Amino acid sequence: MFIFKRGFGGQLLTLIAVLLILPVILTAYMLHAIKRTELALVENHKAKLSKVMDLLDSGFQSNFDEILKKNNATGATRREKVLILNRELKSEIVEIGRSFPGVELGFYSQEMDVILDGDNENYGENFSKRRKQSFEEATQGNKKVTDTFGKPEGGYLETYQPLVRNGKVTGAVWARENLVEIYERVEKIQRDAYLIIFFGIVVGVGGCFALIGSFLHNVKQVKKGVQTLESDLTKALPPASGELGDITNAINHLATRLVNVQNYNEVILSSIDDGIFAVDVTGAVITINPAATRMFGLTETNQHKSFREIFPGDSVFVELLRKALSEQKLVKDFETTWNQPTGKTKQLLVSTSLLLDLNRQIIGAVLTCRDITERTRMREKMQRQDRLAAL
């Protein structure tokens, strides 16, 4: 995948961007979807209630006065009129109500200012001032009225439609439904949406930490590998991905080059006849080539020892190395003698030089010794022959 080919920096930046942007997009989308869902549900129920009122209106072919006249109750008391109207309208209300479970419906008489829902037990119950205003708005304005109330207010959706008979508004038909279940479903959708958003954030954060953890693990491996390279340049670093992979490849390539250079140096030091004796700033021996070991009768156990332990204290080599390290005084082709442990005396041509780092700081010194014993003997022999020839 493209994101994993961009390296750690690209992966981390991409993941952070996703972590910041995705929750915002998800939140906006979910809230928009929830709002649309809620509005769609409300509109659907509005249409249902409107259909209920149309059925109620069309199914009621008469009017309130005709029902009272038919039952010889035009002069009856208000209570008696309400009882008669509820009884006569109940069958139609119940029949339509069966087709729309959960919907409350009925009529409203403007003249008697009473709700007629087919229930004679609560016929005299006063309805709320809020509903009174809705009835008046529908009858006086001769228009359909819809009221929507949230869950804290009961969760009702109420619709009111004027009841017109002979060109005159005599009351209203009404229907209402409790939408608490719908609001609860919407709330559940909201909870699910927020859960998805939370899950997305957790995944993003978890992925970020996993990526950082992987990076730190790779860094630890690289660090461990570099520490191993300090003692053994042949141990390659383990492969890694991204920028760390480039770094490990570069380090491995550099280590290979150093090994090659080291091998070249060893071959060169082994092949030359001059003795090379190198020490660091503390005086510890860092390099002795084979010619030097033969010349001074040394072994590999002398590696890393101080040159003061290897040479006698009054040795000229001790003095030359000391001056080179502490006073930066160097010599070139200085002739001296060296008594080997075997008893043989060697004539040596000695030079000293300094080891410098990239910042031109002293990091050690080198003692170079050339065995000129045979050359000295030949020169002395020739001198004796010349003197004899002159006699």
Task: Tell me what you see in this structure.
The structure is a single chain. This protein is of the alpha+beta class and 391 residues long. The chain has 2 domains: 3-185, PAS domain (Beta-Lactamase); 272-390, Beta-Lactamase. It has 10 helices and 10 strands. The protein has a 5-stranded antiparallel sheet with strand order 2-1-5-4-3. A 5-stranded antiparallel sheet has the order 7-6-10-9-8, with helices on both faces. Helix 1 crosses helix 3 (78-99), helix 1 runs antiparallel to helix 5 and helix 5 packs parallel to helix 6. The longest helix has 53 residues, at 7-59. It is rod-shaped and about 180 Å long. The two termini are 97 Å apart. The relative contact order is 0.07. The model has no long low-confidence stretch (mean pLDDT 83).
The CATH superfamily of the largest domain is known as PAS domain
Which CATH class of the largest domain is shown? Alpha Beta
What is the total domain count?
2
Number of strands: 10
Straight-line distance between termini? 97 Å
Largest beta sheet: strand ordering: 2-1-5-4-3
**CATH overall fold name of the largest domain:** Beta-Lactamase
What is the overall pLDDT average?
Answer: 83
How much of the polypeptide forms β-strand, as a percent range?
Answer: 15-25%
Question: Can you name the CATH architecture of the largest domain?
Answer: 2-Layer Sandwich
- Helicity range: 55-70%
Strand and helix order? HHHEEHEEEHHEEHHHEEEH
**Sheet having the most strands:** 5 strands, antiparallel
Supply the helix-strand structural class: alpha+beta
Alpha carbon gyration radius: 54 Å
Structural shape:
rod-shaped
Number of helices: 10
Instruction: Name the poorly predicted regions.
Output: none
